[in-house]
Amino acid sequence: MDKRLYSQIIGPLNKGMNQQANSFILPGFSKNLENANCDLVEGLKKRLGSVPVKRIDNLATNHGGNAPTGTVKWDEAWYFVYNRSTDERFVLIVCDDSSTVTKTCTTTNGSPVVSITSGGTTDLFVGSTVSGNSIPTGAKITELGTNQMTLDLNADSNAGSSKTLTVTSSKTFVSAVANVEPISGILPTVVPIQQVFSGITSTNLAYLRGSGRARDRFRATSFQDFVFITNIQKDVTYDSSETLTRYNIANISNSYVPIKAQVNVKLVDYATVYNIDIELDDGTTIDGTITTPTLASGTPVSTQTIATDLRTNLLADC
After folding, report:
1. Domains located in the chain, CATH noted
2. Quick one: 165 exposed, middle or buried, by C-beta within 10 A (0-12, 13-18, 19+)?
3. 136, 137, 148, 214: least buried by Cβ within 10 Å?
4. What span, in angstroms and rounded, lies between the C-alpha atoms of 254 and 81?
5. Using one digit for the tens of pLDDT, what is the confidence trace for 224-233?
6. Model pTM?
């Protein structure tokens, strides 16, 4: 056995999970997390044994008018534990049902392309299973176009027009429980209550819909006081109707560039120089430099005071 001593700095993994490319992962995130719980309130802890929290299959299904009609797949739902403070804990649930839709289609022998003559594609998703006459068992949608879908398997010799095909098209809803006690591995002393939602519509729930299991298509990341949920099956684009507010407009080109950045102050100390240099589009560099007070001065120093002073210094150099 190697008995040499090794020195290694392991940073606090208190920001949770982040499975983006390494270049986007800030300190404090873990790429993978198994058998552990990690949050800003309680830090990194070994995952404790499961305990009953609350019955969920009788919770309200907040569906925005697009109510589930098929069997609700609670065992395939996505569950997110939000643990912000001792007074703010809840479990968010995004769940699908087993609904299907029928489409009148034209199939071609030996071709994966299916023309939809009735029903359109608005409630279809890449990855959904398709069944019906001339469609091989287990076929799934790989691409959607204008009144057509492409499958991963070719239609067989029964192909033709006016084929009625059945496509999985799960309806999605959200639910949650609040007043969840800290994770302790023992039965809670206070029974969680059902979380009340407002403003839920079928339009804003459309982003959460997709194919396969709900638990497989969502990722969440925490940023400051917000949790952002991403449906990895969706393609997103910048909203061109939004107006960008850009500072220092005289020194940058008309092409879009980020207008805000986050700076992490990792270590706070007295009588220390903190510096930020930002290079603009035209090569101009703006500089922000501050020196924190000495300990003897009695002036308190924190990440907030350092960040505020750096910002003020940067703006003065613009």
Report:
1. 48-97+171-231 (no CATH), 100-168 (2.40.30), 253-316 (no CATH)
2. buried
3. 137
4. 42
5. 677 889 999 9
6. 0.62
